[in-house]
Amino acid sequence: MSDESKNEAPVEAATQEAGADNQGGAELTVQDLASLKQIIDVASQRGTFKPNEMQVVGATYTKLETFLAAVQAQQAEQGEPNANN
Q: CA 80 to CA 85: how far, in whole Å?
């Protein structure tokens, strides 16, 4: 039980930040995607996914990670201040 309480804060903080940014609309931002990546990471550490689901979760996580890296590189090229998502 103590392991769960240690890991809850990052997920709660990520979901609260995403909700605060997007309360009125149905937009999906790069920050939302970064939060989803963090949620998948924490959920996998907790053993949330069944073994037969891990391949799909891993493939989705890899796609998300690749997309976020590409966005970060593009922002760095453009010299935007929020390049560190």
A: 11
Give yes or no for a contact between 40 and 61, defined as CB atoms under 8 angstroms apart. yes
Token pair of 18, please?
């995403």
**Cα atoms in the 13 Å half-sphere on the side-chain side of 17:** 17
Within-domain flag for 41: yes
Helix (H) or strand (E) holding 4: helix 2-21
- pLDDT tens-digit map of 56-75: 999 999 999 999 999 999 99
Distance between CA atoms of residues 75 and 69, nearest Å: 10
* pTM listed for this prediction: 0.60
Mapping DSSP onto H, E and C, the string for 17-33 reads HHHHHCCCCCCCCHHHH
Nearest to 43 by CA among 30, 61, 18: 61
Number of separate domains in the chain: 1
In a domain, 85, yes or no: no
